[in-house]
Amino acid sequence: MSEPQPATAQDYAARIARVLAWMQARLHEPMPLITLAEVAGFSPFHFHRIFRGMVGESVQQHVRRLRLERAAGLLKTTERSVLDIALETGYESHEAFTRAFRRQFSCSPTSFRETMRGTASPSPSNFSPMTYSTDELQVELRRLPSRMLLCLRHVGPYDQVGSTWERLCDWAGPRDLIGADTEMIGASYDDPDVTPADKLRYDACLTVPAGTVGEGEIFVRDFPGGMFATMLHEGPYQELGATYAKLYGGWLPQSGYVAADPPCVEFYLNEPETTEPEDLLTQVCIPLKTS
To answer: Does the domain formed by 135-287 have CATH 3.40.50.1000?
Structure first.
């Protein structure tokens, strides 16, 4: 086995602290994901998941909260108009700002100003990485072998992949391509916290014998295998994000490894049609660089 890449928990924390400081100083500017990833020194694909896992909120949530907290400070300490403050904090209209502010503080900007004037303004807190217990980080390193996969691409929300699986299985079943040893694998290429829901890419995959040929939208490709960090997710598929957060924000920074290019893969270990959601088992696997 190759030696892991030289990355430490302190290194990850320093990179996240660097990008947090960069964001704090530029709250009035656009923040493209690729720019944030460059500042942090991570690949754009993995940056957001590492950020969310270590900070405890998505980039979008973090920026929105900081901008609204900045707006709250301006409302308390200045006489500037609500519209002026809204524009400075990245909102294009009084109405959009008021809706966002009400969601955050449960009152309108005007009511907040009247109630809070004269009180101390909050100062930005220092970054402290999220902590995870040992029980939460039961991760195994596995070298997955190559496999031949029969695939059908889904583009859209991840929670709507069921119909794609049905189409794939309806095609494969009559051709005797589903048996006791067939593995069901999902390959996800995009982070749902970053990519619009209607643009998310996902391949529903079945392991098949060499020589299998697809048809139309159903295609065959080789899964090259390699070194993966794997973690067992127990429960509904809708809660897989929490397991990804533990892997990216808890285990990866202290592992010494660096995540490789996508996709991440999920092995579905029991049948969703006959299993209660809380009993579903999914092996989540993120690819690792080993050289």
So the answer is: no
